[in-house]
Amino acid sequence: MDELPHTPTDQFEVRTGAYWRRRRGDGLKIPTVRVVAGPDMLASYAIYPTERVSIGRDIDCDLVLTDHSVSRRHAAVIWSEDALILEDLGSTNGTTIGTRRLSGQTRLPYGRVFYVGNVALRIDMMSIEEIHHLERMADRLNRVVRDALTGLLGRAWLEEELPRVVARHQHRQEALGALFIDVDHFKWINDTFGHALGDDVLRTVARLLASEVRETDQVVRYGGEEFLVLLPGCGEVESVQVGERIRAAIATHPWASYVDEAGPKLSVTASVGGASLWEGESPAAWLERADQAMYHAKRTGRDRVVGSTQIEGGPDLSEAGR
């Protein structure tokens, strides 16, 4: 077979489509190994027919992971005769499926989670568009001026760009939403599990945020365990809906896999506050309303989403024109 560029281009789809057809409606689906938990979340690799995909910390691996529980060359996934085979490469911390530690090779069903060291992965059938989206989201975390820990935009970007963003949307009379997201009980996480795991939690939350928003949205690490998402075209109702999707993604993430089963249990939730920009409103006043909505979510039980107009005594949503 001719050498193909590892990019899901139209030519790539046409030349390999006979091997990859898993129809859901009329869409072509490609088996893609992807990280589903941990700091390397969003990392992925679309698999060629008959290809052997290596996984490990070595920079020469096809799918490079950064977690120290992963060996330099840890495991491989092979597409052989329309079946996927998972192989452990003599790793130190093992490759596991369920509770079974793998020895040698085994057939791997689509959608089944497996662990390379402590890193959770899964092979999903994905469209060309979905693969491109994952690649773009991962690329966004490596561009512009970024927060060193999470790869998100930093506070400096916000201070420089926010006035221009607000002025542009007010001039065009376009809706603009904001969400403040704060990780609940983060001090307890740091005190109980250590700052290294706390950093892993923040990196994972950053990737969950990036995966749940559009490419036109901006995700900022506002400070500590607090994040800000700017949502062009979203009023408060739409912003709260996005906030609920983010809240659910954080709450249902497999956090228990990050810690030893014999120790304290880890679960992570977040409180979310949303607000849409009003006509003539200053950026500071707008973000203050979103921030106050987030604190109201914390005061009323955490792990919830509150819009600024839902706070008792706040302005009525219909009167605000949103």
Portion of residues in beta strands equals 15-25%
Identify the overall geometry: globular
Poorly predicted spans: 1-26, 314-322
Helix-residue proportion: 25-40%
Distance between the termini: 57 Å
Major sheet characteristics: 6 strands, antiparallel
Written account of the structure:
- The chain is an alpha+beta fold.
- It is 32% helix and 24% strand.
- Helix 5 (195-212) packs across helix 6.
- It is globular and about 65 Å long.
- Mean pLDDT is 83; it is low at 1-26 and 314-322.
Give the SSE layout.
Elements lengths: L9 H11 L9 E6 L8 E3 L5 E5 L6 E2 L10 E6 L2 E6 L6 E3 L2 E2 L3 E3 L6 E3 L2 E8 L1 H13 L14 H18 L3 E8 L2 H8 L1 H18 L5 E6 L2 E7 L3 H17 L17 E7 L6 H17 L5 E3 L15
Parallel strand pairs: 3-4, 15-16
Antiparallel strand pairs: 1-2, 1-11, 3-5, 5-6, 6-9, 7-8, 7-10, 10-11, 12-14, 12-15, 13-14
Helix pairs in contact: 4-5, 5-6
